[in-house]
Amino acid sequence: MAIAFDSLAALLDHGFDTLIDVRSPAEYAEDHIPGAINLPALTNAQRAEVGTIYKQVSPFLARKVGAAMVARNVADHLDGPLKDKDGGWRPLVYCWRGGQRSGSFSSILAQIGWRTDTIKGGYQSFRRLVHGALYDAELPFRVVLLDGFTGTAKTDVLGLMAGEGVQVLDLEGLARHRGSLLGGIAGGQPGQKAFETALAVALMQLDPSRPVLVEAESSKIGRLIVPPVLWKAMVAAPRIVIDAPLEARAAYLTRAYADVIADREELARRLAPLRHIRGHATVDGWLKLLDAGHFNGLAAALMAEHYDPAYANSRRIEERTVLGTATAQSLDEQGQRSLASQIAKLMPAQ
């Protein structure tokens, strides 16, 4: 019998030895249940072929061809990744809807003698739980935003807060993006579904009795959208502001964005869209600093002429409650630790 899970916590605490995603590699890459390994019942090409037969010839022939493919693929898995599993191994199997692929795969494993089950509704049932947590529910904890001008080392300071006993949610880490026009990270971002899965799991692991510190972001981090349940809480949240002088911020950005600076052509390409906002003369000035290798000067100019005005304008519109300001004259390791200590003292008790 397929197992029905009524909560994300129950599904992730399934109790089986191995969680097997038998969908195609492309489906698995888009998103999957955390901890699952991918043993495809059908490859990407086979899934497309069976789908074409189903639509253009007949469902019967598609099932017949698909069954033969699944059997051969499962045999390969038995001779490969599963060859060392003993008789006490207990796998839990799922596919897209909890239908034929997981049923066929699980049936073969059961015939061998393994105690195996499937997830009722497959990946779609998991996706409904994630969607419900991020689009329908209310967050059970209080959110506090860590705010401040660009270059105030918010992300690095956030990483120090656990050591200060503060509960944090690292949105940029989950989104694999530094949250600005220049914030792309090597390897790129996950898809929206994978981001939401990681976010839902991270939220589930937080203690609802304690406030959560989240870096102030826009509603999009790179190309990913912050789901409405969290965004609603962020919009209403009070904030703690980091303040540091422009020179310290420029020096920090030059260090933090060394990977971006290293590829000057790519950096120039990323700056090009700002011509429509700041004008050709301003952007040309930035490019001259870039060409001359004046990276601290470029960072300072970008903040003074683009990021700081945009930040100041948005804060005038939002008018959020400020719990306090943490200040530092330098954003090196010592300065960041000082900021973390100050922020911990400004955090509400609950």
Oligomer: single chain
Shape: elongated
Number of strands: 11
Low-confidence stretches are: none
Q: β content, as a range?
A: 5-15%
Q: Provide the spatial order of strands within the biggest beta sheet.
A: 6-7-5-10-11
Helix content: 40-55%
- Rg from C-alpha positions? 25 Å
Distance between the termini: 44 Å
Number of helices in the DSSP assignment:
17
Structural class: alpha/beta
Main β-sheet, in a few words? 5 strands, parallel
Strand-and-helix sequence, N→C?
HEHEHHEHEHEHEHHEEEHEHHHHHHEH
pLDDT averaged over residues: 93
Description:
- With 350 residues, the protein is of the alpha/beta class.
- 53% of the residues lie in helices and 11% in strands.
- The protein has 17 helices and 11 strands.
- The protein has helices at residues 8-12, 25-30, 44-56, 59-79, 100-112, 122-136, 154-160, 171-175, 192-204, 228-236, 246-256, 258-262, 264-271, 275-278, 280-291, 295-318, 333-346; strands at 18-21, 37-38, 91-94, 117-118, 143-148, 167-169, 212-215, 220-221, 224-225, 239-243, 322-327.
- The chain has a 5-stranded parallel beta sheet, covered by helices on one side. Strands 2-1-3-4 form a 4-stranded parallel beta sheet, covered by helices on one side. The chain has a two-stranded antiparallel ribbon with strand order 8-9.
- Helix 2 links the parallel strand 1 and strand 2.
- Helix 7 packs across helix 17 and helix 11 (246-256) crosses helix 16 (295-318).
- It is elongated, with a radius of gyration of 25 Å.
- It starts with 7 loop residues before the first helix and ends with a helix.
- The model has no long low-confidence stretch (mean pLDDT 93).
